[in-house]
Amino acid sequence: MPSLKDLKNRIGSVKNTRKITKAMQMVAAAKLRRAQEAAEAARPYAERMHAVMAGLAGSVKGSDNAPRLLGGTGADKVHLLVVMTAERGLCGGFNANIAKLARQHATKLLAEGKEVKILTVGKKGRDSLRREYGQYFVGHVDFSDVKRLSYDDAQGVARDLLTRFDKDEFDVATIFFSVFQSVISQTPTAKQIIPASYEPEEGEETPSVNYDYEPSETQILADLLPRGIATQLFTALLENAASEQGARMSAMDSATRNAGEMIDKLTIEYNRTRQAAITKELIEIISGAEAL
Amino acid sequence: MADTMQFDLVAPERKLASEEEAIEVMVPGADGDLTVMPGHAPMLTTLRPGRLTLVTRSETHSYAVTGGFAEITPEGVTVLAERSLPAEEFTREVHDKLIAEARRVHEEAHPSVADLTAKLLADMEAMGTHMTL
Fold it and tell me: By its UniProt entry, which NCBIfam families does this protein fall under (chain B) (predicted)?
């Protein structure tokens, strides 16, 4: 049976915890709003890019001289998994879910006899994959100093990927990130970006316009494909940032609620113990008086 | 035929400009400047660093773009520029920084793309004149 003083201390410490989680929840809420705005602002560019690429890709598809970024290397041997997670924890299952999806993919590919390479973006995913797949790591991108994700950051990652691709380090690249659906729901997603697959979205008609190309169609495509990859990475990074804050917000919300419940329980226990002590003292006094 | 068209200038991080009643748009295409007017044949062109001018009924706006591409349809122009800013904000410092960056890329570039980066650098330098610095 804990003493009164112990209980008081515990109540005090849980109250402090609740203050911290509450503050973190509010910070996450503010950051989430900013992350969502950034994702919103990036959407028009990504959408136009997607539409143009879908049209272009459709018109060169099947031709023999399709660029390697679109047609692939012709092999399907080495897979590069780009695992994008957060730099920080305390955000519920966010990092774990992405890592889990990546792990499933890696296991499946290895079982098929493929070669796997892993590039991690964000510290948390690296930490959770290191033990099992540490030997497949080929690189890491650190965003812990980055306050606001900019397109340049995405471009840096894209450039890294393209250099590796040019050196024939891999055949297929897949990115793992979380799509932001709502504060309580983020879906971990895998998306293949090299070779690029630009399927027109559901319900969207492939533009049947015949464009004039300047300089040439192939040159434009060669110019656009790297941009398309950078754009996809940027979109994924922004989605991820919003998801992270959303996940943290709901995780901290339930932490705050749990702390509240715990305080209630501890307070009841504290009052009971106090009451018991008083009753005990009273009995002692009364029986003492009776004995006289 | 409509005498105005839609004009959009979008960067990866935000939408920079949107104008429903553009009369003409001057685009610095990779193979030379071109002016787009309503009803232009559909085309796709890459951009070189330069000045993009938008003319509406009442106003004229200029933007500095450093690359990207433009999608032109009879109904409008969509410019997807990686970096772009209104001409008023394009100062000598910004320009110097861009030149320095282009030069660095050129110096580090693989010989196979040296021609391209040299062109980019030259375009970047010429941009100062276009933007009348």
Answer: ATP_synt_epsi (TIGR01216), PRK13443.1 (NF009978)
Judged by DSSP in three states, A238 sits in helix
Cβ distance B43 to A211 less than 8 Å, yes or no, reads: yes
The answer to whether the CB of B123 falls within 8 A of the CB of B46 is no
Indicate the pLDDT class of residue A203, thresholds 50, 70 and 90. very low
Decide if A31 is catalytic: no
Task: Report residue A234: phi and psi, to 5°.
Answer: -60, -45
Cβ atoms of A129 and A103 within 8 Å: the answer is yes
CB contact (8 A) between residue B43 and residue A213: yes
For the segment A121-152, what is each residue's pLDDT rounded down to a tens digit? 988 888 888 888 888 888 888 888 777 788 88
The verdict on A171 and A126 lying in the same domain is yes
Contacts of B77 in chain A (CB under 8 A): none
Same domain assignment for residues B22 and B72: yes
Residue in chain B lying closest to A223 (CA): B46
**Residue in A41, A154, A230 closest to B14 by CB:** A41
A216 — contact with chain B (CB < 8 Å)?
Answer: no
The H or E element that residue A232 is part of is helix A217-291
Nearby residues of B95 by Cβ (< 8 Å), 6 or more positions away: B127, B128, B131, B133
pTM, entire model: 0.85
Q: Do A231 and B12 touch (CB under 8 A)?
A: yes
Mean pLDDT is highest, among A95-99, B1-5, B105-109, for A95-99
Give the minimum alpha-carbon distance from A212 to chain B in angstroms, rounded to a whole number: 4
Note the pLDDT tens digit of each residue in A234-273.
Answer: 999 999 999 999 999 999 999 999 999 999 999 999 999 9
Domain carrying residue A13: 4-21+252-291
Same domain, A36 and A131: yes
Q: State the ipTM, two decimals.
A: 0.79
B101 touches chain A (CB under 8 A): no
Mutation target to probe the A interface, by most A beta carbons within 10 A, among B6, B16, B80, B97 is B80
CB B76 within 8 A of CB B7: yes
Count of domains in chain A?
Answer: 2
Could you tell me if A41 lies within 8 Å of chain B, comparing CB atoms? yes
